[in-house]
Amino acid sequence: MFLAGVEAECLIHFLARVGVESLRVYDRVVIWGVGLIGGSVGLALRKRGGSHRVIGLGRDRSRLDQAVALGAIDAGTTDVARACDGADLVVVATPVDQVARCVIESARLSRSETLVTDAGSAKATIVAAVEKDAAARGMFVAAHPIAGSERSGVAAARADLFEGATCVLTPGAHTNATQLVEARAFWAGIGCRVIEMSPDEHDRALALTSHLPHAVAAALATVVPPELFPLAAGAYRDSTRVAAADAALWAAILLQNSDETLRALDQFGRALADCRQLLADHDQAGLEAWWHVAAANRRGFRGTQA
């Protein structure tokens, strides 16, 4: 039986205060896409005793077998209907341009009370597509756990990947209040600090904090030729680390959030233009002031990293 909206909101605030790490043990969890994120979900569930059985779903049998061998899942299958049969929870951790389709298909093949959530890095397009499907929109809670690395694949998965990480829930107009409570409990239960934003707010923010930095890192890595690597040190290493991430994955993310990422690139371009003009003017005081703002912002970021 679903909770009324006010009751659900009260429960959300209660769970946020008291913690939800042991709220529920799922009988059957399906992870669609057992790579870095999906594999880490599986490892976290198994470490915390959050599920009696974790099923991996994907297209590549050998990768599923690897996930079983690494302990990220109990079993793997390429059959969507077989995976979703009897599932209590489905976590879609596929590339972002496949998420909406996988969510809708999962919902169609699962029980109506099944929670379907995802880990996509861009939300507005996904939520808009799922909201058009009458069944899926009542089962789905869009989520983005902000965790990961430049590495990819289940071999890079970690049971502690989500501990202390922020997970953004981005409910749509038709998101079910009870499912929202359940999604909050799930993501908090594997270690995340859970917050809520609208899909559009999320995409505007992540364009600046994640999508732009990845694009800038890739641009910098493109500009510096390999013959100069002996002269590169910490600044180059730290600034280009995420450029080593999977190209197909990041091309899909940037395209899914293209409008906001273009705006972020324009902002960055204006900041670089300011630096260029100060250099052209040989304005040392101006350059120092420009740098002081950057340094203060960077120190502020370090201060938020507990």
Could you walk me through the main structural features you see in this protein, from its secondary elements to its overall organization?
With 306 residues, this protein is an alpha/beta fold. It has helices spanning 5-18, 36-48, 61-69, 80-84, 99-109, 124-131, 177-189, 199-223, 234-240, 247-256, 258-280, 284-304; strands at 26-32, 51-57, 75-77, 89-92, 115-118, 140-141, 143-145, 166-169, 193-196. The chain folds into 2 domains: 5-197, Rossmann fold, CATH 3.40.50; 202-304, Orthogonal Bundle (6-phosphogluconate dehydrogenase C-terminal fold), CATH 1.10.3660.10. It has a 6-stranded parallel β-sheet, sandwiched between helices. Strands 7-8-9 form a 3-stranded mixed β-sheet, covered by helices on one side. The chain starts with a helix and ends with a helix. Mean pLDDT is 91; it is low at 1-21.
Keywords, please?
single chain; 306 residues; alpha/beta; Rossmann fold; 6-phosphogluconate dehydrogenase C-terminal fold; 2 domains; six-stranded parallel beta sheet; three-stranded mixed beta sheet
